[in-house]
Amino acid sequence: MNTFSNIFKKSFLEGFSAGDITTGKIVVTLLVTVILAIYIFVVYYVHSKKTFYNKSFNVSLALIAIITAAIILAMQSNLVISLGMVGALSIVRFRTAIKEPMDLMFLFWSISVGIICGANLYVIAILASLVITIGLLALELTPVGMAASLLVVSAKDASAEKDILDIVLQDNKVCKVKSRNLSEKGLSLIVECKPKDGAKVIKEVHAIEGVYGVSLMAHDGEVTV
């Protein structure tokens, strides 16, 4: 007997029939995804050359897009597969820490391309990739404040601190003591600064009587305006 409930279930299940996914559709989807995955691979390679390039992560980005597109295609073809995918993916735990915020952006970009291409919205995937690239280049070229450096000084006693800070202030807009440690070995001082000529500051500080160690390190934390 065809009740309303049976008719609804039948029509709902027919919407997930495998006949809706043709071989041509699969080939086109995967081809577009591969092209965009290679594009993401190249953009990440060019962008990361200035810092630290991780080839294995870059390869993973390209493959994640293709795998995601394949999963979306499979979920469209059959209701049982889609429910199984949701259950399987819900128990997956990724324990690899993403250290760089930009790596996280590229990871979301790759997953998004896979989802959008799997849903056959190729134009959106292409336009979104172009907009992301333009935005990435534009923001990279946008001038920002110079990152501060950390001046680490070791002296025999605390009397050298005033002379150290006086020299740092002569060549810096920023001079902030981040750490001050006095022990039997002497004074250990860490100063946040933005030197115009780092080599000059190091030489002048090292020339102070009682100072026996000076080092200037780049600081990757927040930029002080």
Instruction: Note the quaternary state here.
Output: single chain
Look at the helices and sheets and give the structural class.
alpha+beta
Unreliable parts: none
The value of Rg in angstroms is 29 Å
Report strand order across the widest sheet: 2-3-1-4
SS element count, helices = 8
The shape, in one word, is elongated
Give the strand tally.
4
Largest sheet properties: 4 strands, antiparallel
Along the chain, the helix and strand elements come as HHHHHHEHEEHE
Q: Mean of the pLDDT scores? A: 78
Query: Termini distance?
Result: 75 Å
Instruction: Quickly count the domains.
Output: 2
Beta-strand proportion: 15-25%
Q: What is the helical fraction, as a range of percent?
A: 55-70%
Polypeptide structure, described:
The protein is built from eight helices and four strands, in the order H-H-H-H-H-H-E-H-E-E-H-E. By secondary structure, the chain is an alpha+beta fold. The chain has two domains: 4-141, no CATH class; 149-218, Alpha-Beta Plaits (2-Layer Sandwich). It has a four-stranded antiparallel beta sheet, covered by helices on one side. Strand 2 (172-183) and strand 3 form a beta hairpin. Helix 2 runs antiparallel to helix 5 and helix 3 packs parallel to helix 5 (101-118). The radius of gyration is 29 Å and the shape is elongated.
